[in-house]
Each structure stands twice: as C-alpha cells, then as structure tokens.
Amino acid sequence: MAATVTQNAITLKGSTEIVAEFFMYGINSILYQRGIYPPETFTRAQKYGLTLLVTTDEQLKKYLNEVISQIKEWLFNMTVKKLVVVIRSIDTNEVLERWQFDVECDKTALTESKPREKSEKEISKEIGSVIRQITASVTFLPLLESACEFDLLVYTDKNLEVPEAWGESGPQFIANSEEVRLRTFTTTIHKVDTMVAYKKSD
Amino acid sequence: MEDNTAVIRMKRDFDAFIHGTGSKSTPMFRLDQSDISNDSHLEQSSVSSLSVKSLLDKEKENKSKEAEVIALRSQVTKLKLELSSLQTSNKRVKIDLEKDCELMQMEREQEVEKVVEMKAQLQYIADKEKQTREELLECHKELERRKASYEEKINMFRKEKIHLEQELQEAKKKAWEKLTGVKNELVRTTEELNICRQELDDTKSQLVLQLRHSSDLESHLKELEDYKNKAAIAEQKVKEFELRISSMEEDEKVIKAMKSQLTSFEELERENRKLSVENSYLKEIQENILLLKEQNESLKGKLDRSEQRMSDFSKLQIECEDMKLRLEKWENADKGKSKVQSPEEMSKRIAELQRTEALMLAKQGQMQSSMTSCESELRVVKGECQDLKTELIREKQKVQQQADFIKRLQKKLLLVTKERDGYKSIIDSYESEVTVNIQAGTSTHIQQLEEGIGGYKKQIQFQEEELAKSAEQLSESRRQNIQFEKRIRELEQATHANQFSQCDQEIILQLREKIAGLEKELEAKEEKVLVLEARIEQRRLQGDYDPTTTKVLHFKMNPVKIAQNQRTEEIKALQEENERLKKRLQILEESGGKVEDLTVQVEQKLQEPGSAKDIEEMKTQLNSAKLKNERLMEAFKKTSQEFREVCYRLMGYKIDIPCTNQYRLTSMYSESPNHFLLFQQSSSGEIQMLETEFSTSLKDHIDMYLARYDSIPAFLSSVTLDLVSRQTISIG
C-alpha cells in the first residue's frame, strides 16, 4: 500500500487500497463491538492511531479477504455504490442492524491519471474518527439479545457482471428502523459516508 | 461254632423275612445283638488274662479274632446287601402280583359289562327281527299287488305288440313292393350304366385324342410363348436401344453444348478467377460494409442525436438571440448607469431594482392610503368649508345686521344723549328752579339713568367685542378657505397624476399579487422539497436504492447462510436424537426400566420402520403395489382367459394344469369329462404323454402318430377328427 500512496498524493489504486483497508478494519470493529463473534477470537492491532481488534477466526478471515478483494476490484472500476454490513438474528432471521458505507466515486479519476493532493496522514485521521464513532455507537445501539450473524451486501452498477461465487440479494431492510449518520472521510477519489440503521426498540 | 449257627440263623431269619413282613426288623436287630455279644465276650476274655504271653497270645487271638470279626462284618454287610436286593425284588414281585390281580379284576368287570351289552343287543336284535318280519309280510303283499299290476301291463303290451306286428307286416308288404320297383329301376339303371360306360369309353378314346391334340397345342403354345417372350425381350431391347439412341442424341447435343461450353470454360475460368478475386475483394468490402453499416447506424443515431441537438441548438440560438436582444434591451434599459457586465450583476441590479420597486410600491401604497385619507379629509374639509362659507355669510349678515343695529343704536344713542342732554338741561333748569328734595329725587333718577347708560355702554362694548370676534372668525375662515382651495388644487393635481399612472398601477398590483402567489407557491414547494429530501435521505440511510441502476450483491457462502445451514443441521440432529431418546424412553417404559443393551435395542427399533411416518409410507407403497398386482392379475387373467378360449376354439382342446409340469387336455368333442389326455413336461423340456383311461382306448392313434411320426399335434388332431366323426355319426 505504501508503495502506491506517496506522501501527499493519492492515486486511484492507492485510494482503493485505503478504502478497502478501512472496510476491513471497520467490519472487524463492528463484528467485535456488536459481539457477533466471541471477543477471544480477536487480536489487537495498531492502525489509524488507534488500537483496533482484528479477528483471528480463519474461516471469517478467509471470507472477509475474499469479499474485500472483490470489492477492491469494484472500487477500482468505481462500480461499487454501497457496502452494507447486515446483522441478522439467527433464530428469527430478522435484520437487526445495517451498517452502511456509501461510496461516492469521483469518476474523473478513471480518465485522469493525475494524483490528487491529500496527505495520507489526514486521511487516516479522518478514518480514525469514523472508526472511533463506530466504536462509540455501542452506547446508543440496542443490545443484540439473540445470537446473530452478519452478511455483506454490495450495491453495484446494474450492468456489472456477477462473479460466480456471488449472487443477487435483496436490500435486507429493517422493518422499523432508526438511522444515525456517522462521519465521512474522503480520499478525494472515494468518499465514504458511514451510517448505521437499527431496529427501533419497542 | 457261633459262625455256623449264625449263618444258619440268618438263613432262617431270611426265610422268616420272606414269609412275613411283620418280623422284618427283628433279624437285623438280632444280628446286631449277636455282634455286640461277641464284642463283650472278647472284652471279658482280655480282662481275665494279664500276663505278657497271655497278652501276646491274647493279642494274636484278638487280632485273629478281629480279622475274623472283620471278615464276619464284611460277610454281614454282604448279606445285608443281598437282603436289601432280595427285599426290593420281593417288593417288585408283590407289586407285579397286585397289578396282575387288578388287571384281572378289570378284565372281569369289562367282560361282565360286555355280557350285559350283548344281552341288550340280543334283545334289540330280536325286536328288529320282529319288525323285519312284519315288514317282510308287508313287502310280500306289495309284491303281490305289483305282480298283478305288472301282469296287466304285460297284457297291454302284448296287445300292442300284436297290433305293431300287424303294422310291421303291412310295412313289409309295402317295402317289398317298393323293393321290386327299385329292383326294376336298378336293372334299368344298370342297362343305362352300361350304355354310359360304352359312351364313356368312346369319350375316353376321344379324350386321349384330344389330350394328344392339346399336348401338341401346349407345346405349340409354349413355343409361342417363348417366341413372345423373345419378342418382348427384343422389343424391350429395341426400346432400350432407342432410348440409348435418344440419350446419345441428347448426349451429342450436350456434348456439342459442352464443347461450346468448354471453349467458353477457359474464359469462364479466367472470369471465375477474376470473380473470385473480386469476390474476396467484395467480401472484404462486405465486411467493410458491415462495419460501415454499423458505423452508419451509429452515425445515424449520432446524426439523429446531432439533428436533435441541431434543432435544440437552433432553438437555443433563437433563444439566445432573443436573450441577446433582451440583454441589449436590458443593457440599454440601463443606459444611465454603467453597462451591465454579467448576469449576476444584472440579477443583483434586478434584485436591487425589485427591492427598490418593492420599496417604491410600499411608499406608493402609503401614498395612496394617505391620498385616500387626504381625499376623504378634503371632502370633509370641503364640506366644512361650505359650512363655514354659509356660516360666514350668515355671520356677515349678522355683522351687517349688527352694524345696522349698531347704527340704529348709535342713532338711538345720539337721540338718547340728546334726550339726556335735553333732560340734563331740563334738570339743570329744574335744579335751579326746584328745591333740594327735588334735587335729590332727580339725582337718583339721574343716577338710574346713568346706570342705564352704563349698561348700554357695556352692551355696546360687548357687541363690539362680538363683532370683532366674528370679524376675526371671518378672516380665519377666509384663510382656511384659501388653504383649502390651495389643498384642493394640490389634490386635484395629485389626482391628475394618479390617473396617469393608473394603468401601471393596475399592472403593478396584478404583478404584486402574482408575485405574492408565486412566493407562496415557492415556499410550499421548497417545504415539499425539503420534506422529500429528508425522506430520500432517510430512505438512503435505510439502505434504499434505485433498482434501475443498482443491484445488490452478496457472497453466496456468507456467514448468515453458513450459520443457517448449521442451524438446520443442528435441528435435524436434535430431532433425530429426540426421536432416539423417545424410543429409548418407550423401551424403558415398556420393559419397566430393566433393559439390557438399551442402545442396541434403540438402534434396532430405529432401523425398524418404527416411526409412524415410515409405516404410513410403507403402507401406501404396499397398497399401491397391491393395487398394481391386482390389476396385473386381472389383466393377466383376462388375457389368459381369452387366450385359453381362443386356443380351445382353434385347437379343440382345453388345457388345464392340475399340477406343475402336467397338462390335462380335454377335447371339445369328448363324450365325457373323464375323457382327457395327460402330458408331462420333463425338466429337459420334452413332453411325454401319460397313460389315462381315455388314452388306452386310442391305441391305434398312438401307434400311428406317436410311435411312428413322434408328432403330438398330429396325434391330437387325429383324435379330434376321430371324435368329430363319431359325434357326427351319433347326430346323424
């Protein structure tokens, strides 16, 4: 990653790497914070000036790597619009939470090869604040009482060719939801809005 | 010595034991007694002699005696054994005897019973004999009766017989007559026959001749046919040749044509080469054309788009020109100030102007309102003015009246002063003439008069003041009047000005209304837009998307799916376990808690079609299989029935299978159901005939067809023929 991102300039490839890495850490943080996987399967890692938790579950790692590598490709093509972490109850199969990362792509970067001016430090600061918000959101999100699992949805262009391991899905809305918008960060090529929707507690 | 006697005694005892059971135990007892006495005797002897020798002797004796005693004891035991064996044998003999005795008794009783039975039978037989004798007598009587009836019948029959014999004789006579007739005819016919034979011979000879002729003719015919065939073949050949010739001619033509074509062929080839080159070129061109067509299509699309754009462009140009004109107008419109450089400025200016306009409008409104108020005031003032004028006139009249009045009063005053003077002179004259009293009287009178004058003076003064006041009022009203007039003039001027800008004002009013409406609308729309944006934002937050441009993808083997799969598997496993445990419980309940190899049993039970579902499934399967089987059986029965029926009709034999590998054939024409043939199929497939009652009567057929030709079908058909012929005979 460091090879593609120079000190003060961002290329499309570098931006893709940054966003993908953010997704990786963001998803890991959500999974840890929301208790989708047991806390003992996570290990500490230093990133964005924060101590983040990253899974050690091999199966989960494999899944995340597969998904993120595919998303990287789509980020590079700028065909991805949203990445959604859907948290579902296993018992009732009900969607309880949706962590939505809206990706706005500056499509001029596809044709322009000129790198943008923005320091990596600044970006990582922005990302750090987003992840801090994700971590802090535990305070207002309702407790997940039943056992839950998560799914990753990717909103892409309609005319995108679907890879073999992937299938089309519904948007998996929450029936009665409340939404909270979190911070935004941008690499000047990709702008990522973070928000969380959760089931209103009756 | 004792020994001998002991043996004898024992024998005697034994005899006694055999003879009587009552003295059984005594001999034994005696024996013991004897033994004991023997011992005591020994002891006594040992006590009597105490020396060593004697002791040794005694010991020896003792030993010998002991040996004897032992020998004796062994004898005794032997004897006891013998005794016991004898006792048992005796018992057995006794039991046998008793049994025999019982048997004999039983036999005797049985025989007695038999005798009784025999007696009873004898009596019964005697009774029966009596009955039979009676019956016999009755039978005799009946026999006689019957004899009589039969004799009568016989007589009847005899009569009939005589009658029939007569008839027979008549018939014979007739037959004889017929016979003679027939014989005559026969003779005649024989003669005719002879004649016919002769004729036949003639015809035969003729026939021979004819045959010869015919053979000749046949040979001729054959030759002719050969010739005909040859001719036909030749004709065919001719035709073929003709065809060939024609084909040859055609071929020639073709060849000529071909030759000409051949000459042109080279040219053609050359042309062909050229054409192929051209063709390849054309193909390339075609590809190019395709490409061009595609390009063309795309260009057409582009053209359409560009045309549209052009039209749009022209529209836009027109608009632009329009706009330019407008702009110029606008720019010209603002000649006074510096030219408008940009639309922003313009808009700013416009905004300013609008603002000023609004301000102006507001001012105008104020003005108008003030004007209207002024007009109303004016009207009021005019009214007041009129009032004041009338008042003024009235006041003037009043003043004039007052002036007249004052003049009159002055005249009066003058008159009064003259009078007063006159009176004063009179009074002076009187004063001079009259006394003091009178003077006092007159002075009071004067004083009074003077007072009156003072009153008059006051009144005059008051009147004068009033006059001055009214004059002042008049001047004031005049001033007011002038002011009002001035104002009226002003107002009139203002109203004139209002009339000039009335059209504009109307327009302005309309515009203002419009602006107000539009502003309201704008506000409403903005609110709506805000609401909608908020909604869109919310929907976006909820994860909504535009399905026309976006689709949602996810990894197929995502954790949710995996978890769900695991869950379903778990549930399945739990259900199975539950089932197993239920069975376990059931077994435990059935056996009351004591079961060995519980798990094995549970497994067995699970292996068995234990669950109701399995049973039901199996039942349904069984039912369906049964149904199928039944249907098949029915169909099979039907077809087999048909087949058998057809076989019976066609072959004339009904085939039954009484037991495996045996076939019973019953003919259609058999005289009794017992007439059937039996065949057996051996394991190697050969069919052998078995002997039956019926087959023994068919010896000839068997010899003929089975032995000689070894053909069962032939045999069967011969039997059928035989039976048919027999039946037809019997019918005939």
From TrEMBL, chain A:
For this protein's source organism, the top of the classification is: Eukaryota, Metazoa, Spiralia, Lophotrochozoa, Mollusca
One Pfam short name: HORMA
Q: Which organism is it from?
A: Potamilus streckersoni
Mind telling me which PANTHER family this protein's record contains?
MITOTIC SPINDLE ASSEMBLY CHECKPOINT PROTEIN MAD2, MITOTIC SPINDLE ASSEMBLY CHECKPOINT PROTEIN MAD2A
Family indicated by similarity: Belongs to the MAD2 family.
Keywords assigned by UniProt?
A: Cell cycle, Cell division, Mitosis, Nucleus
One example of a Gene Ontology biological process annotation: mitotic spindle assembly checkpoint signaling
InterPro entries noted in UniProt: HORMA_dom, HORMA_dom_sf, Mad2-like
Q: What is its main location?
A: nucleus
HORMA domain location is: 13-196
Could you confirm whether the keyword Manganese appears in this record? no
What's one GO-annotated cellular component? kinetochore
Protein name, per record: Mitotic spindle assembly checkpoint protein MAD2A
Domain of life per record: Eukaryota
Subcellular location per UniProt equals: Nucleus
From TrEMBL, chain B:
Does the record carry Flavoprotein as a key word? no
Which GO biological process entries does UniProt record here? Answer: attachment of mitotic spindle microtubules to kinetochore; cell division; mitotic spindle assembly checkpoint signaling
GO cellular component, as recorded: kinetochore; mitotic spindle; nuclear envelope
Q: Which family does it belong to?
A: Belongs to the MAD1 family.
Family annotation (PANTHER family):
MITOTIC SPINDLE ASSEMBLY CHECKPOINT PROTEIN MAD1, MITOTIC SPINDLE ASSEMBLY CHECKPOINT PROTEIN MAD1 MITOTIC ARREST DEFICIENT-LIKE PROTEIN 1
* Name of protein: Mitotic spindle assembly checkpoint protein MAD1
According to its UniProt record, where is this protein located?
Nucleus
Check the record and name the SUPFAM superfamilies matching this protein. Mitotic arrest deficient-like 1, Mad1
Q: Which Pfam families does the record match to this protein? A: MAD
Q: What is its main location?
A: nucleus
The coiled-coil segments of this chain are 55-82, 126-333, 446-591, 615-642
Name the UniProt key words of this record, in alphabetical order.
Answer: Cell cycle, Cell division, Coiled coil, Mitosis, Nucleus
